[in-house]
Amino acid sequence: MSENLIALLTGYTGESGKALLKELEQRQIDFEKIDDYPEAFHGADMHFCCLGTTRGKSGVEGFRRVDFDYIVGVARLAKQEGCKHFHLLSSLGADSHSLFLYNKVKGQTETALTQMSFERLSIYRPAMLMVDRTEHRPLENFAQTIMRNTVQRIAPEWMTTPIDILARAMYLNSFTKDRPSIEILDNHALFRLSQQQTFTTKEQSQATNES
């Protein structure tokens, strides 16, 4: 990454994490053995958290353990080790007061992280992720097929988020300046961010000399 920044990514085995990993220089750790890698958190300027599962895959307790306990634990360790900018992949509809488990847990996680006083906390709320998963999810695949042939053609930013758009937006947001300490980015903001350009320090210097 430019500016000699060090980033840490947890949840790289999921589809969002895989896409984001392509934008970063890579050093992988085994999340199942995260306690074996305390040094991996030390010195990371920013942390991208793409951890997440589903109730269908992990059950109610498993879903909450991953989407709340794991994420909050990772965030606390990141803050402890000096992380300045924490990126959280959340979801459209996140609301700690929701009657729906998925939205409620996502909202509770957001609330917990906002209380940790990061120098900067970026929360991303994409819509339906459009991605060809390696994991078999028949209902989601069916929904994506419907979306691709209807909503995505007419109003792509309304209810869908291509996975590459999400990953690029998260990556480029690391370089934006003069942002609030806590920001929540909806789907429209993700599309706008993904269209931005970033420059290395050398390229910025060259552009200044040429202007």
TrEMBL record:
Annotated InterPro entries: NAD(P)-bd_dom_sf (IPR036291)
Gene Ontology BP, a term: import into nucleus
GO cellular component: cytoplasm
Name of this chain's protein: NAD(P)-binding domain-containing protein
Domain of life: Eukaryota
